[in-house]
Automatic annotation (TrEMBL):
<feature type="domain" description="Porphobilinogen deaminase C-terminal">
    <location>
        <begin position="240"/>
        <end position="307"/>
    </location>
</feature>
<feature type="domain" description="Porphobilinogen deaminase N-terminal">
    <location>
        <begin position="12"/>
        <end position="224"/>
    </location>
</feature>
<feature type="modified residue" description="S-(dipyrrolylmethanemethyl)cysteine">
    <location>
        <position position="254"/>
    </location>
</feature>
<comment type="subunit">
    <text>Monomer.</text>
</comment>
<dbReference type="InterPro" id="IPR000860">
    <property type="entry name" value="HemC"/>
</dbReference>
<comment type="similarity">
    <text>Belongs to the HMBS family.</text>
</comment>
<dbReference type="Pfam" id="PF01379">
    <property type="entry name" value="Porphobil_deam"/>
</dbReference>
<keyword id="KW-0627">Porphyrin biosynthesis</keyword>
<dbReference type="InterPro" id="IPR022418">
    <property type="entry name" value="Porphobilinogen_deaminase_C"/>
</dbReference>
<comment type="pathway">
    <text>Porphyrin-containing compound metabolism; protoporphyrin-IX biosynthesis; coproporphyrinogen-III from 5-aminolevulinate: step 2/4.</text>
</comment>
<dbReference type="Pfam" id="PF03900">
    <property type="entry name" value="Porphobil_deamC"/>
</dbReference>
<dbReference type="InterPro" id="IPR022419">
    <property type="entry name" value="Porphobilin_deaminase_cofac_BS"/>
</dbReference>
<keyword id="KW-0808">Transferase</keyword>
<protein>
    <recommendedName>
        <fullName>Porphobilinogen deaminase</fullName>
        <ecNumber>2.5.1.61</ecNumber>
    </recommendedName>
</protein>
<dbReference type="InterPro" id="IPR022417">
    <property type="entry name" value="Porphobilin_deaminase_N"/>
</dbReference>
<comment type="function">
    <text>Tetrapolymerization of the monopyrrole PBG into the hydroxymethylbilane pre-uroporphyrinogen in several discrete steps.</text>
</comment>
<dbReference type="InterPro" id="IPR036803">
    <property type="entry name" value="Porphobilinogen_deaminase_C_sf"/>
</dbReference>
Amino acid sequence: MTIALPTPAQRLKIGTRGSPLALAQAHETRTRLMAAFDLPEDVFEIVVIKTTGDDAALIAADRPLKEIGNKGLFTKEIEEQLLSGGIDIAVHSMKDMPVEQPAGLVLDCNLPRENTADAFVSLTYASIAGLPQGATVGTSSLRRRAQLLNRRPDLNVVEFRGNVQTRLKKLGDGVAEATFLAMAGLNRLGMADVPRAAIAPEEMLPAIAQGAIGIERRADDSRTAAMLAAIHHAETGQRLAAERAFLAALDGSCETPIAGLATLDGGTLRLRGEILRTDGSEALADDVTGAVEDGAEMGRAMAAKLLGLAGDGFFDWK
Ligand SMILES: NCc1[nH]cc(CCC(=O)O)c1CC(=O)O
């Protein structure tokens, strides 16, 4: 099949948020497309789109993300541009993507996944276990808060947002003794100087799709579909299918901390999942293996099992 490739007169427009991490992900996407089709840089245009989640006032106020309403917080404005033709593809952190895309859009291209772990970041301490009794930890993630309080109910968790530099400054100012970041973000930004320790999944299971990049397009854009198919990383897609099926089957019932991680060993997929009460008082987890092609079904079955164990009031929280 021959594809009508983009030219300097007909450029392929890559939409992205403007954060350093989002730009790094857009650049990686461009680099992979250039290599796959032997194209020069000037047939691509990177279009920066501001989303609600980027609103400086919201970030500065350190309001919990759940109060702002996180459905499509980082994606709505980008998807509008995609639908209206302002851009041709949109590069996203899969962790921030709702399980379903709006009508007319498809999200079926993934780049090879980065490190999936959360990083423990502290100027003073080496690990969660090393934190002194009652120490203050900054995070705005419901999942990390619940996991932390489940393991260390003595800790004091405070809201913490902003980019990596802002968070490091807060640590330096003594606002908190430690915080968490995704290892993937630190690696993609080349931030070798940030003091971090990767947390094993047994200690803190990451967010669904952590470390994965997804590329969205219009459903009827066959040229773009063919280009993206050439850079799609199948194993990452298989892992995300299991994790996102787990998330989708839990969704709607609650706004609860959810974690999940699929790994592949040949044709065998291992799926670990966890749901928690937001105050960390209870965690329910499961760990299964099966054939890779059954990943989505394993995710749905795990969700049903954990929902069955959860009991009345599991998702009621203040
Ligand atoms: N919710 C924000 C977000 N979305 C993706 C990443 C990091 C990169 C990734 O997980 O792919 C982050 C920041 C963080 O958790 O530190």
